[in-house]
């Protein structure tokens, strides 16, 4: 059985090489399937939520009586910890998509009695553990991977807020 598996693996690598040389446009379409080894493996992914975390970014601090125009663009992406390169794309397929935030607006200073108004953007993430079970389609052998994920929260992924300071 090991000899057959080795022959199939060599054949897959040979086909990949030939596609890259002979038909690069077709190889580009097949690259995702070959690189994630969906030909040889099947994957089962489970997630376990543990907490919500966040990153806060200061956009601007505007003094009393002033107005400032700001262009801002932020993106909250998936973050993975303890993830081998060969399963990163598999895990990312099962997480929330990145969230983008773009704005161009006038930001005003606070009312009398306060010196500054500071504007913030908070990117909220759901944090948890994932488990991936990779099964070899030929031999049936399983390998388990585990790690930590941070994905953009489905509830208020990006929140804009401000605080007045005396």
Keywords:
166 residues; alpha+beta; five-stranded antiparallel beta sheet; 3 helices; 7 strands; elongated
Structure, explained:
The structure is a single chain. With 166 residues, the chain is an alpha+beta fold. 23% of the residues lie in helices and 52% in strands. The chain is built from three helices and seven strands; from the N terminus they run ααβββαββββ. The strands form two sheets. Strands 1, 3, 5, 6 and 7 form a five-stranded antiparallel sheet that branches. A hairpin with a 5-residue loop joins strand 5 and strand 6 (142-152). Helix 1 (2-22) packs antiparallel against helix 2. The radius of gyration is 24 Å and the shape is elongated. The chain starts with a helix and ends with a strand.
């Amino acid at each position: 059985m090991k000899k057959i598996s080795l022959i199939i693996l060599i054949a897959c690598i040979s086909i990949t090489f030939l596609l890259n040389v002979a038909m690069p446009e077709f190889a580009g379409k097949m690259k995702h399937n070959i690189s994630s080894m969906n030909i040889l493996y099947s994957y089962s992914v489970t997630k376990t939520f543990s907490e919500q975390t966040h990153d806060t970014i200061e956009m601007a601090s505007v003094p009393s009586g002033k107005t400032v125009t700001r262009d801002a663009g932020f993106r909250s992406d998936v973050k993975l910890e303890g993830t081998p390169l060969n399963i990163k794309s598999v895990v990312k397929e099962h997480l929330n998509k990145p969230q983008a935030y773009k704005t161009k607006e006038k930001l005003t200073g606070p009312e009398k009695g306060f010196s500054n108004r500071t504007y913030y953007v908070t990117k909220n993430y759901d944090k948890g553990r994932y488990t991936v079970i990779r099964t070899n389609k030929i031999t049936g052998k399983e390998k388990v991977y585990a790690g930590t994920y941070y994905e953009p929260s489905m509830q208020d992924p990006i929140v804009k807020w401000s605080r007045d300071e005396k």
